[in-house]
Amino acid sequence: MDMSHKPGTALVEQGQEEEEEASAPVPQRPSLPRAVISALTDNSAPGEAWDVAQGIRELRRDGQLAHVPICIARLENALLPVDGKWLEDRLTIMWTAMGHSRDPRVSAAWLHETIRLLSDLPGDIAADAIDEAIKASERGYMPSVGAIRKIAEPMVAKRKRALARLRAVVTYTRTDPVEVKRPTPEQVAEILRDNGFASILDAKAEREARANRGPARNPTREDYLAMGVPEEHLPEAMRLPVDAQHQAAAE
């Protein structure tokens, strides 16, 4: 910017009114549906980061999934740098109201550098940050560039994070869980026999048959009777091994 630029010089001409171009419109904050904002918000539980799959579920639940491309376009537009004419007008007003020097070279230099150091900010964020910095200034001192950026930069970061999350929703590759059905015992047996493992089935059948023959413990009187041992032979049966008892009962 030329250091003798007219707005900078006009700052020190007290009471003088000049014809200027129409002021640029005040930057507007982007409007997003509340449900979209909620779906992009960090989880409230400590230690749990935002999850794209959970965000997609919330957007689908609230009927907002189809609006994501529109929201992306709005945020991309809302991250564009501030309109130069609006920023110059806003800073000119601030200098006129709060500046303590009437030296045209000082005012021109201040305006040039302040515009350069704030020109990357989005318009609505720059407007809010300047206002908040002025509110926080003490004793009528004009806020510094650092004070303005300290307010603006977290707002920019938050907006960029929301945009990144919306883009993640669009590019997310959904992997639905595969339903795994456990085979039935009959299907397992068929697979084993088809692959030459019939001996495994035979051994299993033998173990099951052996388990069903009777308890693998010292039989009680009731066990003997249940195996068919006549009551008069109980004393003799109790002295035999278990397998011999089964054989005697079968005879």
TrEMBL record:
It comes from the Bacteria. Residues 1-32 are annotated as: Disordered. This is Uncharacterized protein. It comes from Rhizorhabdus histidinilytica.
